[in-house]
UniProtKB/TrEMBL annotation:
The keyword Signal appears for this protein: no
Primary localization: cytoplasm
SUPFAM superfamilies xrefs: all-alpha NTP pyrophosphatases
Biological classification of the source: Eukaryota, Viridiplantae, Streptophyta, Embryophyta, Tracheophyta
Subunit structure: Homotetramer.
Provenance organism: Hevea brasiliensis
Ranges for domain NTP pyrophosphohydrolase MazG-like: 39-111
This protein's GO CC annotations: cytosol
Cofactors (names): Mg(2+)
EC number: 3.6.1.12
One GO BP annotation of this record: dCTP catabolic process
Name recorded for this polypeptide: dCTP pyrophosphatase 1
GO molecular function: dCTP diphosphatase activity; magnesium ion binding
Amino acid sequence: MGEGGEEIAEEKVMDISLKDLAKKLEDFAKARDWEKYHSPRNLLLAMVGEVGELSEIFQWKGEVDKGLPNWEESDKEHLGEELSDVLLYLVRLADICGIDLGDVATKKIIKNSIKYPPKIC
C-alpha cells in the first residue's frame, strides 16, 4: 500500500490516456489537500524545475545514440523518473487550465504538417 492507503500497481500499465492521467493526478492532489497549491503558476514553476533536473542528466554527455545503448540501467531509470515528472506536471497544468492536451497536441501536429510539408523527391 502507498501513502494514503491506495494500492500501488505492481503490473506495468501499457496504455493510459492523458485524461486518465489527469484524473489520477487530480485524485492524488485531492487526497492530500494539495489542490490549493496547484495554481497554473506553481505548476509551471515546478515543471520548469523538473525540466532542469532532466537537462542535468544530458548536460555533459554530448550527443547520445537512440535507445541509449551505452547507458547503465540505473541512468535510464533516473531518466524515466525525470521524464515522468515533467509529463505529470504538464498534464496537471493543462488540466488546471482547462486545456485538452490530447486535442491541442493533435491539432498542433496537423498545423505543423501544413507549415512544414514533406519534401517530394
